[in-house]
Amino acid sequence: MNPKEEKVKIITEEFIENDEDANVGKRKKNSKVQRQPRKKQPPTTGPDKMMLEESHLGNQQELVQDEPQTRLLSVTARRGPRSLPPIPSASRTGFAEFSMRERMREKLQAARSKAESALLQEIPTPRPQRLRSPTVKELETEFGTESGKEVGSTQQEDDTQSYARVKFHVSARKIKSKPQVPPGFPSAEEAYNFFTFTFDPEPEEAEEKPKHGDGTHQEEEEGEEEPPTEEGANRMDEEELLHGKDAEDFLLGLDHTADEFLAVRPAHYESVHVRLQREKEMLFIPSRLTVPTYKKLPENVQPRFLEDEGLYIGERPEVARTNQNIMENRLLTQESGRRWFGDDGRILALPNPIKPFPSRPPVFMQEQSIKAELETLYKKAVKYVHRSQHMIGSGDPAGNFQLDIDISGLIFTHHPCFSREHVLAAKLAQLYDQYLARHQRNKAKFLTDKLQALRNAVQTGLNPEKPHQSLDTIQKTINEYKSEIRQTRKLRDAEQERDRTLLKTIIKVWKEMKSLREFQRFTNTPLKLVLRKEKVDQKTDEEAYEAEIQAEISELLEEHTEEYEQKMEEYRTSYQQWKAWKKAQRAKKKKKKQATEEHPEEETEEPYPEEDPVKPSPPEPTDRAAVEQQVRERAAQSRRRPGEPTLLPELSLAGSVTPNDQCPRAEVWRREDVKRRSVYLKVLFNNKEVSRTVSRQLGTDFRVHFGQIFNLQIFNWPESLTLQVYETVGHSSPTLLAEVFLPIPETTIVTGRAPIEEVEFSSNQHVTLDHEGVGSGVPFSFEADGSNQLILMTSGKVSHSVAWAIGENGIPLIPPLSQQNIGFRSALKRADAISSIGTSGVTDMKKLAKWAAESKLDPNDPNNAPLMQLISVATSGESYVPDFFRLEQLQQEFNFVSDEELNRSKRFRLLHLRSQQVPEFRNYKQIPVYDREIMEKVFQDYEKRLRDRNVIETKDHIDTHRAVVAKYLQQVRESVINRFLIAKQHFLLADLVVEEEVPNISILGLNLFKLAEQKRPLRPRRKGRKKVTAQNLSDGDIRLLVNIIRAYDLPVRKPTASKFQQPSRSSRTFREKHAASPDTRSPTHSADYPLGQVLVRPFVEVSFQRTICHTTTAEGPNPSWNEELELPFRAPNGDYSTASLQSVKDVVFINIFDEVLYDVLEDDRERGNGIHTRIERHWLGCVKIPFSTIYFQARIDGTFKIDIPPVLLGYSKEQNMIIERDFDSVRSLSEGSYITLFITIEPQLVPGESVREKFDSQEDEKLLQATEKFQAECALKFPKRQCLATVIDISGKTVFITRYLKPLNPPQELLNIYPNNPQATAELVARYVSLIPFLPDTVSFAGLCDLWSTSDQFLDLLAGDEEEHAVLLCNYFLFLGKKAWLVMGNAIPEGPTAYVLTWEKSHYLIWNPCSGNFYGQFDTFCPLKNVGCLIGPDNIWFNIQQYDSPLRINFDVTKHKLWKSFFSRSLPYPGLSSVQPEELIYQNTDKAAAAELQDRIEKILKEKIMDWRPRHLTRWNRYCTSTLRHFLPLLESSQGEDIEDDHRAELLKQLGDYRFSGFPLHMPYSEVKPLIDAVYSTGVHNIDVPNVEFALAVYIHPYPKNVLSVWIYVASLIRNR
Amino acid sequence: MAAAGPSVFLLMVNGQVESAQFPEFDNLYCKYCFVYGQDWAPTAGLEEGISQITSKSRDACQALVWNFPIDITFKSTNPFGWPQIVLSVYGPDVFGNDVVRGYGAVHVPFSPGRHKRTIPMFVPESTSKLQKFTSWFMGRRPEYTDPKVVAQGEGREARPT
C-alpha cells in the first residue's frame, strides 16, 4: 500500500473516532458542491507543489511566523517518501528524538484539551458532518476493525513519517488560527481556501478523493485531538508536532513574504440570462419553421416539378422535416445560399444511396446459429473465362457446360497374362457375344419374312382379279419384286450360313476349351457353354422346308427361263446380223478369192454366239433337277435340316475355377502376376488430362469395374475426348497401354438417355512372360508341336457412356451449336446490352419493348438504362456493335481531370517521367509543388533528345556514320537498360539477407583448428576493408586515392644547343632507326650536360573529373615520388546507386610532366641579387585509367606503360646509354617508360553484380548443361581463374563461345602492304584492330553482363571492348594461317579481359588487341598477368596448372594435365556453326569526308585551346603548323616509330630560333570529345609566356570500314632571344 | 513566392522510441533511421540514431524502456514517399555476440498530434535448420543487408521472416 494513502486513512479514521455523532445525511447533500471547485485545479500539479500551495494558503489565514516554517517543511516533504526508498527508522527514533518526544507529549496534552474545546464549538458547522460518511465507509470497507487498522498504521509509520509530519503540522497551524475567526463560521479566506485547495494528486488517492478528500481537510483542522486516542498514531503525531513547533519557534521572527500581497477576488460569475443575451448577439439559430417556397426560389419563378414532367428523379434520402427546415433557413441567410435549391424549391439531393436491404448477411446472435453461420461451404473453383475461337460466349451464369462421362468398366479381350484357356475363353465369349447380337437382331428371320412378303406380293400381283392397274405397270412392279426377291434370298442365305458357321465355331471353340481343360487338368475360367436343343415338329418343319425349297426352285427356274429368253432374243438379233454379214461376206468372196483363208477363222469365231443361245434351251427340263439339287445342297449347308432340333448355345459363368493349390506352379505364378496388376483410366479432354479413375486391381476374369461418372465442366467446345488406359504392375510406374477415343456426343444425348457403349482398344505392346501367361505380341500355339501359331495383341473394351448433363432447372448444359458458327457476332452482342442486363435468353426484342412499355419502366432511371438502350437499338432495327472494348468501365467516372489537362500539367509530367525512369529525371529530387515553379528548361534536354532520336545530328559526331552508330548504340543501350531495370526488381534472398553459408566440413574443421591456434598478437594481419553499399552515400564521401610510387625510363631532355650536330644526322637514312641511333648519340649527349644538371625533373599530375592534383617534383629519369593523391569523386546527379556508378564514364588521367626552369633574368648584372625564373612544364606522357575499371577492380596496383607520344621534341630516351652495358638484353625488351601506381576508391564500393537473369538460348540443352558442369568444375578448382564457355550476344541470347571464332578476312588493303612479310602484316592487322575505338560494355550497358557482338557487328558499330577486339584480331590471325587462341585472363589495368595468343614458329606471342602491342611469353612488362582459359575455334581449355602467370605456364594445350579441355573424347566437338559471317566486306572510307573531318577537328581544337586561355592572346604559327601537317602522314605510314630525328632536324632547320615543345597524339577516332580531353590533358595551353605561339595540326588517315586514325600535333613555340 | 524558391511543406517529427517488449531478450539497444521518397529531404535533426542499452524493467510487464528521442524535420514537395521510420533492435546473444533481434518499420503518422505506434518486429529466418544452428553457434544470424529494406516494397518475395 502506498504510504501516503495509508496515512490518509489513518487520519480519517482518527477523525471519525472523535466525531462519532456527526450528522451523515447533511454531509452528503453538500459534498457535491464541494467537489466542484476542486476540479478546477490544474491537473498537472505535482504533490510537492501542492504541498507548497497548501502551505501558502494556510499562511493567509495564519500567523505570519508560520509561513517560513511551512516552507521548510514543504522542502522536507519534497524529498519525502514518494519515490525514494523508505528511510530507515533507526535514524528517526534516535536517542535525542526520544527525549524530545517525552517533552512533546506533555505539550500535546495541553494542546489537545484546547482543541477539544474548539472542536466542540465547531460541531455545528456543516463541514465536519459532510466528511463523515465517506470515511465511515472507508473504515468499514477497508479496515474492518480498528485493531486491524492499528497494526497497519504502526507498520507503515516509519515510511509515512515525513509526509505525515507536514500534514499534521498544517492541521496544527490551522487549529491555531482558529481563534481569529468567529467560531462556527468559516471565514472568507477559509471558504476560498476550501474551494481552491489542492488535494493530493496521487492516483491512488484520486479514487478516494471524492469520498474523503474533505476528510483530510477536516482532519487537518482537528488533528490535535487525535494523538491521545490511539497509541500508534500518537507517537508519530507527537513527534511531528514537536518538529513543527520547534521550527515555528525558530522562525517566529521572520518577515512577511510576497504571498501576503496576493489579491484574492471572487470567481467571476455571469448569470445565465446575461449569457443568453450575449449569445443571441453572437449566434444565429435558424428557425425550425417551414420556409415558404417562394423564398427559396428566385423571384417570379414558379416551382417546377420535374417528376411531373416525366423526368426521372431518384428517391430522396429521408431527412427529418425539422432538420430540413433548419437547413433551409440557414441556407437562405447565407450568401448565395439559393443555389442549393432546386427548381422545385427543395434542397438539391442525390438519390438515396442507402439500400433498402443489407448487403451483408445478418448475423444472428445466438451462439448456435453463429456456428451454423460459419459452416464452410464448398464451392468449386470457377475458372476465369477467356475467349478463343472455340469459346462459348462470355460468362453467362449458366455458362458452365457439363459433360458427364460414365466409365463403367473395362474388359480385356486379350491380355499378356491370359493363359491359353483365357484366350479360348475370350474367343468363345466374343463369339457368343456375336451370336447374341445376331440372335437379337435375327436378320435371317427378318429376311425370311421379307421374302415371304415379297412372294405374296408377286402372287397377288399376278392375280388377274384386280385389273385396275394397267398391265404394263403390274408387269413392271412384278419384275421389281422379283429382282428384290432374288436379292433378299441371297442375303438371307448368306445370313443363315453365317449364323450356322458361327454356331459351329462356338461349338468348336468350346470343344477345344474342354479338351484344353482336360489336358492341363485345371480350369481357369468359369465359362461354360450349354447347348439347348429346341425340339421342332418334324412334319411341319419338313413341309416348311420342302415348300421353301420348292418355292426357291420355281423361282430359280423362272429366272433361268427368263434368262434363256433374253438370251434367245439376243441370239436372234445377232443371228440376223450375222446373216447379213455373211451375205456381205459372200459377196466379197466372189470378188476376192484370196480372202477365203480368213473366212474359216471368222466363221469359227462367229458361230459361238450363234450356238451359245441355243445351248440353254435343251437343259431346261433336265435343269430342274440340277437346280433342285443345287438348292438342296445349299439349304443343307446353310440351314438347319428339317427335323433337326434348333441349337441354342448359352454361355454361363457357372463353372468353377480350380483353386491355386491344385494348379501347377506356372499357373500359380500367372495368377499372382495378374493380382499384382491394376488398371486405371485417364480422361483427357481436348488433350488435357482432366481426371482419372481410381486404380483398380485386375480381376482374374480380366475385367475391371470402375463405375465412375466424371462431370466435366467445360468452357471449350470439346474437340476430342480420350481415355488412356494405364496399367500398373506392382509398384512400378504405370505404363500406357492404349488410348481410347470416345466420340463426342450429339447435343441431343443427355444424361440418362445415353446408352452404355463399348469402345474397343488395342495396343501394340510386346510382352513375354515367364509363366503360363501367353504374353502379347508374341506367337504362341495351342498345339503341342507349336504349329498353327497365333499372335495376339493386348486388346480390350471400355464400356462407357458420354452425355451432356442436365442442369438444375432441366436445361441441358450443352454449349449452343450456334456459338460455334456465329461465335463472333454473338460474343459482341453479349458484350453489349444484353449481357449487362443479364438476360441472355431474351431474343424477341419487340416483345421486350412491348413489355417495357406496358410495365411503364421509367426510361430515365439509370437502373433501366441498358435495357432502354437495348430496346431502342432493337426497335430501331439497326444493331449497334460497339467498336471498342473498355477494360475499366468505371474509370471515366473516377477521372477527376481530363487526360489532356493532366498531360498539360508539368508537375504530373515530371512525376510520370521520373517513375518511368527516364534517364534525365531518374534522380530528380524534390519535384516542385506547383506547376509555375517548374522551369520549362527542365524538359528541354529531354525533348531535344526525343526529337533527335531519329534525326542524325552531325554536330557532335561530325562523321555521319559514327552518328548513326551512336544512335544505334543508344537505342540498344536503352532497351537493354529497360530490361535491366526490370531484372533489378527481382531480388534474391542473398541480396537482402546476409546469411552465413552452410559450413562444410573443411570450413568447420578450419575454424576448429583456428580455435586451437595460438594467438600471436604481434603478427599483423591484413584485414579486408569494409565495403560500403552505395545506398547511403553522398557527395564528398567517396575519394579516389592515387598512390604514385615511381616511374622508370622517362625520356630525358636533350640539350638545346645541338644545332651543329644536325647535318650529320639528317644524312642518315630513314630506315636506319633504333638500333643505331642511341649508340651514335649517347656519348655526345652525355657530354652535353653540364655537371649537376638533371636530365629531367618529372612530376605527376592526376586529373579526374576536372580536379587536378600533382605530386612534388622529383629528379632524374627514374624518379620515385611515393605520394598519395586524393581526388574527390562525384557521381552523376548525386546518385550513388550501383547502376549509376557503373555508368560513370570519367577517366583518370595520369600525366607526367617535366618541370623546366627557365632563367628569365634579362640583365646579367642582377644575377647576383635575385633569382628570376619561369617554370614551364612539358608533357611527357600519360596513363589513362577509366573509372569503371577502378570501380570494378576495387584497386589497381601495378606498373603501367606510359603512353608517350612517338615524337617528343626535345626529349629522348637516354637511359639506355647509362645502363646499357649491364642490362642490355633485358632493357632491349622494354621500350618505353613505365610508372608504378596504386589506385583505389575509399571507401571501397561494392561493385554491382551482373544480372542473374537467365537468358534464353538456342544452344542445345545438353551443351548448356555441359557448360554449366564444366564451369562448376573449374570454379571448384580455381575459383579465381576466369572460365568462359557461353556468352551473351547482342540480342541477349546465350551463345557458345567458340562460335565466335572463325577465320575472317582482314581488309585486302592491309594485306597488300607487306605481301611477303607475315610478321609485318600481323602487326598491321593488330594496329588496324586497335584503331577501332574502345568502349567498355559495362559503360554502355550499365550493370549488365558483357555482351559480345560478332565481328561484323563490331565493325559496324565501330566500338567494342576487349572481347570484341580480341575476337576480331584472333579471327584475322586465323585467316592469316596462324595458330591463334583467345586468352581470357586478367590484365592490368583492364582487369578481366581477353587477349590473343599466337604461335610463331618457336615461341608464343601475346597480343593486346586494344593497343595493338604484342609481347613475348616471357616479357615481364606484358600487361596480361594471369591466364584463365584459352579459347580456340573448336574447343576451350581451362588452365589447371599451378600458376597462371603467362611467364610460368606452358601454353601447349595438347597436354591434358595442364589444360582441361571442354570437348574431349567423352564429349566430342559437335561441329558448332559459327555466328560470324562468311566474309567481312569492307567499304573504303570516303577520303574527302575524312579530309573534311580533319579540317573540322582542327578548327574545333583551335577554338578550344583559345577558350582554355581566356586571359591570354593565342597566336598561331602558321608556318610551323604547315610543317607539322606535312609531318603527320609520315608518322602514320611509319606507325609512329623512329622518325623523330629527321623530324627534329627538319623543324630545327625551319624554326631554328624558336624553342619548340610539342608532340603528336595518336588516337582512334570515335568522337570529338575524347580528342579534346586528350589535348586538354597535355596542358599545352597552360603556357602563359607572353610571346608564346602555338601550332596545331590534325591528320586523319582513313582505313577501310570507316576506321580512322587520328593524329594531332600540338606544339608551343617560344622565340629564343 | 516562386521567386523565393520552391515552396515546400514541412513535416516535423518529435517523439521517442519509448519501450519494447521482447519477452525472450534482455539488454537490447535500438537503431532508427528514416526511409523517405525522392521528394523528401531532411532539413534539421538527426536522420539516424542509436540508443543506449536497456535492460528489462523488474515489474511484471518487463518492458525494455529506452525513451530515446526522435527529432527530425523534413521538407517535401510531394506526399509520395512519406517518411517511414525503420527500427532495428540489437542485443547480445548467449555468447555475447551482438545479433539483431528485430526489424520493423512504420510510416510517420499522417495527421498532426500525438500518436502512439506499436511496431511488430521480425527477423529474417535462416534458410535451413542446419544454418539456423550454425548461425546460432557462430553468432552470425541472418540479417538484412540494409535495415531500410524493411520499408521498401521491392524484393519482398525473396524475404523469409
From TrEMBL, chain A:
Residues 208-218, 621-636 have a biased composition (Basic and acidic residues). Residues 437-498, 550-577 form a coiled coil. Keywords: Coiled coil. SUPFAM superfamilies: C2 domain (Calcium/lipid-binding domain, CaLB). It comes from the Eukaryota. GO terms for biological process: axoneme assembly; camera-type eye development; determination of left/right symmetry; embryonic brain development; heart development; kidney development; motile cilium assembly; neural tube closure. Residues 25-41 have a biased composition (Basic residues). Residues 1022-1200 form the C2 domain. Residues 219-229, 599-611 have a biased composition (Acidic residues). Residues 1058-1067 have a biased composition (Polar residues). GO terms for cellular component: MKS complex. Residues 17-97, 110-162, 203-235, 589-661, 1056-1088 are annotated as: Disordered. It holds the Pfam family CC2D2AN-C2. This is Coiled-coil and C2 domain containing 2A. It comes from Microcebus murinus. The lineage of its organism: Eukaryota, Metazoa, Chordata, Craniata, Vertebrata.
UniProtKB/TrEMBL annotation, chain B:
GO terms for biological process: cilium assembly. Transmembrane segments: none annotated. It comes from the Eukaryota. PROSITE patterns: C2_B9. It is found in: Cytoplasm, Cytoskeleton, Cilium basal body. Keywords: Cell projection, Cilium biogenesis/degradation, Cytoplasm, Cytoskeleton. Its main location: cytoplasm. The keyword Cytoplasm applies. GO terms for cellular component: MKS complex. Pfam families: B9-C2. Belongs to the B9D family. Component of the tectonic-like complex, a complex localized at the transition zone of primary cilia and acting as a barrier that prevents diffusion of transmembrane proteins between the cilia and plasma membranes. Required for ciliogenesis and sonic hedgehog/SHH signaling. Part of the tectonic-like complex (also named B9 complex). PANTHER family: B9 DOMAIN-CONTAINING, B9 DOMAIN-CONTAINING PROTEIN 1. This is B9 domain-containing protein 1. It comes from Microcebus murinus (Gray mouse lemur). The gene is B9D1.
